[in-house]
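Side project, low priority. Logging it here so it doesn't get lost.
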Amino acid sequence: MKGQELVTTFFHEIFHAIQKPDPDQCTYSASQEDSFWIHEAGATYFGLETSAELAGVSSQLVWDKHMRFISDRLSEGSIDRQLDDPALAEKGAIALHLLVQLGVLPVAGLLD
C-alpha cells in the first residue's frame, strides 16, 4: 500500500504541473472554494487513475480500495462528510470519479 500511495502522491503533484495554472479561476464555478477543491480533487483523481494504469490493474479496483479507505476514516470519525479538510482532495476525487462514471463530467474537463 505504501508504494501505491507514493506513486499516487507523485502523480498528484505532477498533475498540478499540467493543470490550469490559476486554480482561483474555476471554469465550473466562480467560487474560490470550489476552485480549490476541484483543483486538489482533480490532481488526486489523476493520481489514482495513473497509479492503476502503471500497476496494470483495473482502475475500479483502485477506486474501490480508495473508497473503502475513506469510508473507514468516516466511520472512525477522523474525517467528516463535508467537502473540506481533512481529506478534501480524497473526498473530492470520489465525487469527480462518480460524476465521470455517470457521464456528467468529461475527463478532459478536469484538465481545465
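Brief comment: Residues 32-55 form the longest helix (24 residues).
Revisit when time allows.
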